[in-house]
Write a structure and sequence with these properties.
about 475 residues, 13 helices
């Protein structure tokens, strides 16, 4: 019996080994750089050049690596024929990468399971552009095939992918890119943007149409730098250079409809950054009453904002169907801390945000001193100045702005769109300095009149005037 088991086991191992070797031989024969580049070239309508492909008999197990892969911009059939087998000219590169590694597990295929261990692009560089007419240099990718009729195109584009369209269970170890660069030139804006050190990976992908409730998840992590190349000519910011790290998950299919409706749940960290001319900050700095109260101590919002090595700066993001919900947002700068939450529609660009600015306690005395000078300058009457303490008035004027920790705490509502932001102060409700001076002067003059009356009437009879003074104060 044991001998039979050994024979059967050995036979199974031998059969599997033969399958692996056979598949490896097919790969070795078919995975030729000229053959692969020509097939990709036909599919993309672009000149493709591959320097080297590492493939062997055991590539089905060890994987395939493509090295120094380059793709040109769009080419006509005649241009493709002329450039076949030749390196892509340096000034005509649409995309390139140092290597691509592809590794698939063979045995799960026998069970109708697609188990991809790795599909990763290393150091890719992609050059995207949009001309003045708004045409992208990948527009040919986005157009439906000419062979389809308009009715077929409308029908195919209208239908959403369902998880039931997947013939097999999908498992993927990791796929994405590492250390990539994406350059984007917008001809309409005359502006260049760059993503650098871009690493974006989807990993532990597990999708099973038969067990969607438990197997419907893609884990995500990415990191990158994002910057403007040259100052912005339009938009909600002048220029920026920030780094971001994110981790979370993507739920690709809706459990109720079973349709492809991705929901992303991420924590986005922004450890380093530099931003100039952020429209929201400019709008806060332009609120007149804040200029009266805070003066130069709010003008920092108009300048360059910089931070580095911050573990606090970031936001939690929930995204689905064009709606992004933000929570637990924090940005800590040298002068102030910003807390925010709310929502943004990625289609309409509409904003509905709450923003809280808490300023450093160290500026309180300076703000009070500057405020006292403004109040003193606003009091024109010498008689009123005799009975006025500008410092006390400034201290009283600041009280509504201070929180329990004695820090200036301002709350704003942010609306409008990302290109035209509306910001309003919702807390505290501040009186103009003119009203503060007028009310204080009225009270001082009434008090001065009571004092003078007491001197004329005597202390006992003068007590009646105290009551009159109190009545005036209540009416105020």
């Amino acid at each position: 019996m044991f001998k039979k088991i050994m024979i059967i086991s050995a036979s199974l191992v031998a059969a599997i080994l033969l399958l692996v070797i056979a598949a490896g031989i097919i790969i070795m024969l078919k995975v030729d750089k000229d053959f692969i580049s020509s097939q990709i070239s036909k599919a993309l309508n672009r000149q493709v050049y591959i320097e080297k492909i590492d493939a062997s008999v055991f590539s089905i197990v060890s994987g395939i690596e493509i090295k120094n892969f380059t793709v040109s911009n769009f080419k006509t059939p005649q241009q493709l024929a002329a450039g076949q087998g030749k390196p892509v000219a340096a000034g005509d590169v649409f995309a390139s990468m140092e290597s691509l590694r592809f590794k698939i597990r063979f045995l799960p295929l026998l069970k109708k399971q697609f188990d991809l261990k790795e599909f990763v692009l290393y150091s890719p560089v992609i050059n995207l552009s949009r001309d003045k007419q708004g045409v992208l240099n990948i527009d040919d990718f986005l157009r439906p095939p000419d062979k389809k009729s308009p009715q077929e195109q409308d029908k195919s584009s209208a239908r959403q992918l369902s998880v039931d369209d997947l013939p097999i269970t999908i498992q993927v170890g990791q796929m994405g890119m590492k250390n990539g660069t994406i350059n984007y030139y917008d001809g309409k804006l005359g502006q260049t943007f760059q993503m650098y050190k871009l690493t974006t990976l989807a990993y532990d992908i597990n999708i099973d149409p038969k067990d969607l409730e438990n197997k419907n998840e893609i884990k995500l992590k990415f990191g990158m730098g994002l910057k403007t190349v040259g100052p912005m000519k339009t938009g909600s910011v002048q220029n920026f250079d920030i780094t971001m790290d994110a981790a979370g998950k993507l739920i690709p299919f809706d459990l109720k409809t079973r349709l492809l409706e991705p929901e992303a749940i991420l924590h986005l960290a922004v450890p380093d950054g530099e931003i100039t001319g952020l429209q929201i900050f400019n709008s806060i700095a332009a609120i007149p009453i804040l200029g009266d109260y805070l003066g130069q101590y709010i003008s920092f919002l108009k300048g360059k904002q910089q931070w580095s090595n911050s573990r606090e700066n970031g936001v939690d993001l929930l995204y689905k169907a064009g709606n992004a919900k933000l929570s637990n947002g924090k940005l800590v700068l040298k002068e102030a801390k910003f807390l925010f939450d709310g929502a943004m529609n990625t289609t309409s660009k509409a904003l509905d945000m709450n923003l809280n600015m808490i300023m450093q306690k160290e500026i309180n005395d300076k703000v009070k001193e500057a405020l006292a000078k403004k109040i003193d300058a606003a009091i024109k009457s010498p008689e009123v100045k005799k009975y006025t303490d500008a410092n006390q008035l400034a201290e009283a004027a600041m009280q509504p702005m201070l929180n329990k920790d004695n820090m200036i705490d301002l709350k704003f509502k942010v609306g409008g769109t990302t290109s035209k932001t509306n910001v309003s102060l919702v807390h505290p409700q501040l009186n103009s300095l003119g009203n503060i001076v007028a009310k204080s002067a009225g009270g001082i003059l009434t008090g001065a009149g009571v004092k003078a009356g007491k001197e004329l009437l005597g202390e006992e009879r003068g007590k009646v005037l105290d009551s009159v003074h109190d009545i005036f104060k209540k009416k105020e």
